[in-house]
Design brief:
The protein is α/β, with parallel strands linked by helices. It has 14 helices and 15 strands. The strands form five sheets. Strands 5-4-3-10-11 form a five-stranded parallel sheet. A hairpin with a 4-residue loop joins strand 1 and strand 2. Helix 1 crosses helix 8 and helix 10 runs antiparallel to helix 11. The protein is globular and about 90 Å long.
Length: about 475
């Protein structure tokens, strides 16, 4: 099943390409991680579900995977035009806390979401502030040929490399899509390599450098960590589609300068052979923004009674390159679908022995392999999984082996979940699970005594509190969202 060639969409060339590793038998992947100044939005987390499916696919294909995800704890400004405040410094000031404490708190919150979504741990979490010395050395190596100094910092001249902006298809009129917000820049698209601390100011995070005390630019961090931990060129660089317009073109320019490479007709000159980007999560009601007061983070979904893996299912139902529209109805449908799959897996025999190459499963396994190998088409792969579950008169252990193989890629943790696990108590619920169980027992007693009026009254009372009683179902009851 894994022999089907893996084809991935390369944002740099705008075409599907067969994956050919730089190092035989290996796959080296770098994913742009979060800036840890706030809780991650579920739209941010879509990028890591996508990168996780990519990593799982490469492992499933037999490659020795090295996956790096960075943690940005310095250098990311509030404006893409090299203006504004450092996001970390700004949040630390607002919270009146140490910037290091801010970074620790939001990094741990992000890691909790990673765990809840069953995203595998990367080979390394690379934290930006651990690589300041390497960033300074990298900048020193390219400064003479590619940079110039202003009062505000060291800037990269984008005209010193060929094909700047090809990733974003931005090689049109100079400055298109950018605002020149820094006085003295040669070109509006030039960007900061090192930002000097303004005279008379002190930052919580600042270091000495040949260009004065200050902090690295956001783009520099990823070039340095990607090159140091994976080596140039590595195989795949991933991120959200928002990175495709500015952050990743700037990374590529730095990589070209550092490696002394020419234009981007050869993709590996960019530092990575393939650049992959997931599309946006869109929420059209406008009710879930930070300004609206109900920030759409994973904990909010849990507070409303949805298991985090319902959101992973929602992501898998759409292709990573298509927009994913969020709605509570859509999330409920994803949760229902996950429940049905879990119910089907719970009916399988517990025996682990089985041969996944059983002839009945060949068409489903081929369909699954073709879908995943076609640029990670998880929506079709899910259908193949459900078709396996629907096969009758087959040994449970054999069916389980096929499902386990598919789930290694999809990452839903199907054999680690039960329906009861998916029964999350909404924060707004006025009744506890212990009280529900007590009422269920009282209702059973009423039915034994043939007091059907009391039995119906208890059922109606539970329904009014958001609890659905399911007679004849082993689970017994469930939250009615």
């Amino acid at each position: 099943m894994t022999d089907t060639p893996l084809k991935l969409f390369n944002s740099l060339t705008r075409q599907l390409e067969e994956f050919q590793p730089v190092h035989p038998g290996e796959a080296r992947v770098y994913t742009c991680g979060p800036t840890v100044y706030n809780y991650p939005h579920i739209g941010n987390m879509r990028a890591y579900v996508f990168a996780d499916v990519l990593g799982r696919t490469l492992s499933w294909k037999g490659y020795d995977l090295t996956h790096i995800i960075n943690i940005t704890d310095v250098g990311h400004l509030t404006d893409d035009g090299d203006a504004g405040e450092d996001k970390m410094e700004k949040m630390a000031a607002e919270k009146a806390q140490s910037i290091w404490d801010i970074a620790k708190h939001y990094t741990e919150a992000y890691w909790a979401d990673v765990k809840a979504l069953n995203i595998r741990q990367p080979a390394k979490w690379s934290v930006a502030t651990d690589y300041i010395d390497e960033m300074i050395e990298f900048a020193k190596g390219i400064a003479d040929r590619h940079c110039y100094e202003l009062e505000s910092g060291l800037y990269f001249d984008v005209t010193t490399v060929d094909d700047y902006g090809r990733l974003a298809r931005a090689v049109t009129e100079e400055g298109e899509g950018r605002i020149d917000t820094v006085e003295g820049k040669r070109n509006s698209q030039d960007f900061a390599i090192w930002r000097k601390t303004p005279e008379g100011e002190t930052r919580q995070m600042e270091w000495d450098s040949p260009w004065g005390k200050g902090a690295p630019g956001w783009h520099l961090e990823c070039s340095v960590m990607g090159g140091k931990l994976l080596g140039f060129p590595f195989d795949i660089h991933t991120g959200g589609i928002d990175h495709r317009e500015i952050h990743h073109p700037n990374e590529i320019a730095q990589n070209q300068a550092h490696c002394c490479t020419n234009g981007l007709d050869k993709a590996e000159n960019s530092g990575a052979r393939i650049w992959m980007h997931n599309n946006f999560l869109v929420e059209r009601s406008g009710k879930m923004s930070k300004s609206a007061g109900e920030f759409l983070r994973l904990q909010l979904l849990v507070d409303k009674g949805y298991h985090p893996l319902a959101y992973r299912m929602m992501c898998l139902q759409a292709h990573y390159r298509s927009e994913l529209e969020f709605s509570w109805e859509g999330l409920q449908a994803a949760l229902t679908r996950l429940k049905r799959i879990i119910m089907a897996t719970e009916r399988l025999e517990e025996e682990l022995a089985g041969d996944p190459s059983h002839p009945k499963f060949v068409p489903m396994r081929e369909k699954f392999a073709a879908a995943i190998s076609d640029d990670l088409n998880t929506s079709v792969a899910l259908v193949a999984l459900e078709e396996v579950l629907a096969v009758k008169k087959v040994d449970g252990g054999v069916k389980r082996a096929v499902i386990e193989e598919m789930d290694r890629v999809l990452g839903l943790g199907l054999f680690d979940l039960t329906r009861a696990d998916l029964r999350i108590r909404p924060k707004s619920a006025e009744i506890s699970e212990a009280e529900i169980e007590a009422e269920i027992i009282r209702r059973k007693e009423a039915k034994v005594e043939k007091d059907y009026a009391a039995s119906d009254a208890i059922r109606a009372s539970l329904a009014a509190k958001g609890v659905e009683v399911m007679d004849g179902d082993p689970l017994g009851w469930e939250w009615k969202l």
